[in-house]
Amino acid sequence: MKVGILGGTGPQGRGLGRRFAMAGHEVLLGSRDAARAQETAAGLAGAGRVTGVANADATDADVVVVAVPHEGHADLLTSLAGALEGKVVVDCVNPLGFDKQGPFPIEVADGSAAQEAQRILTGSTVVAAFHHVSAVLLDDPDVTDIPGDVLVLGEDREVVGRVIELAQSIPGARGVYAGRLRLARTVEAFTANLIAVNRRYKTHAGIAVTGLPAQDEA
Amino acid sequence: MKVGILGGTGPQGRGLGRRFAMAGHEVLLGSRDAARAQETAAGLAGAGRVTGVANADATDADVVVVAVPHEGHADLLTSLAGALEGKVVVDCVNPLGFDKQGPFPIEVADGSAAQEAQRILTGSTVVAAFHHVSAVLLDDPDVTDIPGDVLVLGEDREVVGRVIELAQSIPGARGVYAGRLRLARTVEAFTANLIAVNRRYKTHAGIAVTGLPAQDEA
């Protein structure tokens, strides 16, 4: 599969790019700054096929992952709405604020970053996924298996199934359907809880769903 | 430990009452209707020491679990604020609405049910926990081990530790600190995602945190 990543030079974008490349996908690593994307892509060359490009060129893919900070999210998607038409867009943006007590979810007028993306990208199918997999683990070439589940939320069952397959192409990861897009806010916000877990237990936590039937444990 | 349960005749309250009794705790199962509480308690007699009482009498315990529907939550706590003074109050209320697309989190003016409880119970220490353990599994006497983690949120580290211990007195369950009370909304709301998981996969799902250090895996 050809996977584009908007914001591919940030920790989550670069980590996902590494894993998708390791899984044999062709990765278009996008950035506002194409030169920086090329530099990051060069650093991932050992993982597989990764090309650094401008964000606009990273839309030339089967699936486009959005991994930018929430601040620039709406503006970037608005500028790329035409290029993303007809495509599957996977949003993994976590709208969080930070103060002296740590991270907290910030309000998004559309309910969640994923719903914001779907409102802007009227011609695309937006799915929310990859919020909780640790960027540190994703980007560590010594980590062979990514622990935990990738929660996948969306309206279109077939498209959700494709994103679950993309998640499961990453060794160790399991994709689990976790509700319609209107429940994405909770999954985005839960990243703040995981950061609290990380701080308390000095780890890189993820989450797993218990009790799934065996055929979905694959 | 002596554990009181407000709303002990509902599915979550009754299930938790069963597990706490199985773990050897003395359980005061409270209800608006003391006669109904006695009836439910009689049904749990095989599990251990369970007494059915009026909600007001269930406050005479070391830890008081609040397992009522969100509709009556604020009024009940307001009426019991005096009796709950100085106590540890564990809120497991999930403020959810339901429509034809399934469950969704509803807005709570205080941010979450747990924060609402803490605002009302100025003399108590409120901790949020036990939102995600399946009431069906808790209340099934044939289930010996409860899978998954109990996420525990609160401000007071010592009290959070006590509630983690209470959670871990239930065979199979692990208590995990998951942030301050201001992050409780996400944990409450995540119950809607778990219901979506249950519907899709025909199961009783829970969640587990991955990546915790071994000493916390106990």
From TrEMBL, chains A, B:
Biological processes per GO annotation: copper ion import; NADPH regeneration
Membrane-traversing stretches: none
Keywords: Oxidoreductase
Entries under InterPro entries matching the protein: NAD(P)-bd_dom_sf, NpdG, P5C_Rdtase_cat_N, STEAP_metalloreductase
SUPFAM superfamilies: NAD(P)-binding Rossmann-fold domains
Pfam families named among the record's database cross-references: F420_oxidored
A molecular function GO annotation: coenzyme F420 binding
KW Cell cycle (keyword) present: no
Gene3D superfamilies: NAD(P)-binding Rossmann-like Domain
Taxonomy, superkingdom: Bacteria
Annotated Pyrroline-5-carboxylate reductase catalytic N-terminal domain residues: 2-95
Annotated Gene Ontology cellular component terms: plasma membrane
Keyword Oxidoreductase attributed: yes
Name the UniProt record assigns to this protein: Reduced coenzyme F420:NADP oxidoreductase
